[in-house]
Design goal:
Blueprint lengths: L1 H4 L1 H6 L2 H4 L20 E6 L3 E6 L9 E2 H6 L5 E4 L3 E5 L6 E5 L6 E4 L7 E4 L5 E7 L1 E2 L7 E5 L2 E5 L13 E2 L6 E6 L2 E6 L4 E5 L3 E5 L4 E6 L7 E4 L4 E3 L5 E8 L2 E8 L2 E8 L4 E7 L1 E2 L7 E5 L2 E5 L14 E6 L2 E5 L5 E5 L4 E5 L3 E4 L6 E4 L5 E4 L13 E4 L4 E6 L2 E6 L5 E7 L1 E2 L7 E5 L2 E5 L5 E5 L4 E4 L8
Antiparallel strand pairs: 1-2, 1-43, 2-3, 4-5, 5-6, 7-8, 8-9, 10-11, 11-12, 13-14, 14-15, 15-16, 17-18, 18-19, 19-20, 21-22, 22-23, 23-24, 25-26, 26-27, 28-29, 29-30, 30-31, 32-33, 33-34, 35-36, 36-37, 37-38, 39-40, 40-41, 41-42
């Protein structure tokens, strides 16, 4: 049954776990501040919750903690177009409420447990509980059941199809699966039938423009379908797995008598690189690493080999000109593609950073260094820990003090002077020095000192309500 296959959709939406009968205790805080998108922090000074903007200024009226937790199952401290900061259901902790695209969630009627409708987070009912079952909204529509038949509605409750399906799935991107009698069909958002399905399939959204219809191994190959409804790859192509898109190419896998082989197609479904490799990894910086019985090598987007095959443990792309070779004896070297020159690295472990063209190398004594594509320690320093943050920020720790490197600002180095240091969000981090809380930016400038905060968190560091 599709209903069973797609039950995870219901689990994914927290509201199914958080919907109880509506009581007079349900409460929307009268002092709620509906602030702009600049809000970034929640500060707890012991008595109040305060919403702060990125410069540490109040984004609205403080909310007394006692008032916030005094009434009801739900109370909102702050809200923007994406999510609420709210009271955890039946607890004393703050959590986030992830807003879906229409702001509506299925609920079960307290009077008739067999009926379902849709309500807002604060339990304001928008679509009455008249359905026998309801899936969450996806792509602006929801699948609902009535008298044993399924149909689709919009966020106003308008019926977009007749109740004529024996089963129906939620939309995953622009595709869904319906069943009529013994036949199943793939449909698009206009409810047009794209194809008849003769086996079990699942939909995976590849991008806004492409989706994959995956068969269940080893029986059925996969399909690549465009948003226009064109079937770019069908089962005749014998691609049992279609992976993600990278650098305009999609990695594919064939299964021949239990043996897998990998290659690449373009977004038109055309084969660009034949499926001849035992292993192939996604393209990075225009290069992909591949393996055959001869060993490891790298190819460009046309399938041209860039280096002879080597019998090594692994090979990874650092940038368009440099590869990292991991050898059987535990050693690592940098391979310059143009000259085929190898630069040996004296580290027991090497990690390629994702947001910047740098590596971290771990020495035998556990100390870590930041290394460029020439194998040089760019700071001539070692650290106890190096953590890659977002947007080219590397947080470092030395002797229990923390600092950071902004690789986007000519490797700006802020020395480890902080007792605590958070990840950066929206060019801001929370730091503690000499017991005092500060908001700092990625240039190392102290934006604001926050003396009255017993607890400070970024809004998106709070857990999601469950």
């Amino acid at each position: 049954m599709l209903k069973l296959v797609l039950i995870f959709f219901s689990i994914y939406i927290f509201v199914f776990a958080c919907t109880e009968k509506k009581t007079t205790e349900n409460f929307q805080n009268d002092n709620v501040n509906i602030s702009g998108e600049d809000a970034l922090f929640v500060l707890d000074d012991g008595q109040n919750y305060k919403i702060l903007d990125k410069n540490g200024e109040l984004a609205g009226t403080p909310v007394l903690k006692g008032d916030f937790f005094a009434k009801g199952e739900f109370a909102t401290l702050w809200k923007d177009k994406n999510f609420h900061i709210a009271k955890q259901w039946k607890s004393e902790s703050i959590c986030r409420v992830l807003e879906n695209e229409v702001g509506l969630y299925p609920f079960q009627s307290s009077k008739d447990k067999t009926k379902y409708g849709f309500e807002e987070f604060d339990k304001n009912v928008i679509i009455p509980a008249i359905f026998d079952y309801a899936f969450p909204f996806s792509s602006g529509v929801a699948a609902v059941e009535k008298d044993g038949k399924w149909g689709y509605i919009n966020s106003s409750g308008k019926l977009l199809t007749d109740f004529s399906f024996d089963d129906a799935s939620s939309f995953n991107g622009f595709l869904a699966i319906i069943k009529k009698g013994e036949e199943s069909f793939l449909i698009d958002l206009s409810f047009k039938k794209i194809m008849t399905l003769n086996s079990k399939y699942q939909i995976r959204e590849l991008s806004d423009e492409f989706s994959v219809l995956e068969g269940f191994l080893p029986n059925k190959p996969s399909y690549l379908i465009s948003k226009s409804g064109s079937i770019l790859v069908d089962e005749k192509r014998n691609y049992y797995k279609i992976y993600g898109e990278s650098d305009g190419l999609i990695r594919v896998m064939k299964n021949n008598n239990g043996l897998s082989s990998f290659g690449f197609i373009n977004i038109k479904g055309e084969e660009v690189i034949p499926s001849i490799y035992e292993i192939a990894n996604d393209f990075v910086h225009g290069l992909a690493t591949v393996k055959t019985k001869k060993g490891w090598s790298a190819i460009d987007s046309k399938g041209k080999l860039l280096t002879p095959f080597r019998k090594i443990e692994n090979i990874s792309v650092i940038d368009a000109k440099t590869l990292l070779l991991s050898k059987s004896d535990g050693k690592h070297t940098l391979l310059k593609i143009d000259s085929q020159l190898e630069i040996e690295l004296e580290y027991k472990k090497v990690i390629i950073l994702k947001s910047v063209v740098l590596l971290t190398g771990e020495k035998e004594n556990g100390q870590k260094e930041i290394v460029n594509t020439e194998g040089k320690n760019i700071l001539n320093m070692s650290f106890d820990e190096i953590i890659e943050d977002s947007d080219g920020i590397l947080r470092v720790e030395l002797k229990k003090k923390r600092g950071f490197i902004n690789a986007n600002q000519s490797s700006l180095f802020v020395k480890p002077i902080y007792e605590k240091f958070s990840s950066f969000k929206d060019d801001r981090a929370l730091a503690v020095i000499a017991g005092q809380n500060y908001i700092i930016n990625s240039n190392g400038e102290m934006i604001k000192k926050l003396n009255d905060g017993t607890s400070i968190k970024f809004i998106n560091d709070f857990p999601f309500c469950r």
